[in-house]
Design goal:
The protein is mostly helical. The protein is about 70% helix and about 5% strand. The longest helix is centred in the last third of the chain and has 57 residues. It has 2 domains: about 120 residues; about 60 residues. The protein starts with a helix and ends with a helix. It has a two-stranded antiparallel ribbon.
């Protein structure tokens, strides 16, 4: 029984060791890709600053209110390890806000057209003017509040930005996604390393028990 348990422990230790080596190899590849993407991003950023000017690509162009477009969440995987995942917020809210503002403005234009009809008297015109003025005062604050949607940060630097700046944004987007994968993989590597140490201790204990049992048989 002792020999079979020792063999099972050795096989389990070999499997964990192979898994640990595979995880380390994959982690090294992802880290190399991450470093390459960071270098490409900064190189593209420097090209954009060279073409547009240092003052045109700096912190001075940042928006007054900045909200994150990507959130990082943690979750527990099926294996029990802690995983990291990214969630990129869609920009559909911006289009929805534009639609509501257009719908609010529509009736105002109809009211303006109706008051130009010759059949209406001066009092009706004044009433329509007051009503349209009240509606305009209600709509303007809403537009001011909704003017800070989560938009593409490239718009901070102008409408027609160079291709190098778009390439820099694409590289850094991939960096964010890859960073979450590397964090998840690094957590798995640490857990596998701890399991490998525990299996080594168990194997040493079994070896001591097996050797002690053999010595007892020889002495008998």
């Amino acid at each position: 029984m002792g020999v079979s348990e020792l063999e099972e422990s050795s096989l389990l230790l070999d499997e964990k060791l192979l898994q640990f080596m595979d995880q380390l190899e994959l982690l090294e590849e992802k880290r190399a890709t991450l470093n390459s993407l960071i270098e490409q991003g900064w190189f593209s950023m420097s090209k954009a600053r060279y073409s547009m000017g240092n003052k045109q690509v700096s912190a001075l162009q940042y928006a007054s209110e900045i909200e994150p477009l990507v959130h990082v969440h943690t979750r527990t995987l099926d294996s029990g390890d802690l995983g990291f995942c990214t969630e990129r917020l869609s920009q559909s809210k911006e289009s929805g806000k534009d639609v509501t503002s257009v719908e609010d403005i529509g009736p105002q234009e109809e009211g303006v057209r109706r008051r130009n009809k010759p059949k209406k008297n001066i009092k009706e015109k004044e009433a329509n003017d007051k009503a349209s003025g009240e509606k305009a005062s209600e709509v303007i604050p809403e537009k001011q509040i909704d003017q800070n949607p989560q938009q593409d940060p490239l718009k901070w630097f102008g409408i027609l930005v160079p291709q190098s700046l778009k390439q820099a944004q694409s590289s850094f987007k991939q960096v964010i996604e890859l960073s979450a994968e590397i964090a998840t993989l690094q957590t798995a590597v640490l857990n596998t390393r701890q399991e490998l140490k525990n299996n080594m201790k168990d194997k040493h204990i079994l070896q001591e028990k097996t050797s002690a049992a053999l010595l007892d048989k020889v002495s008998d």
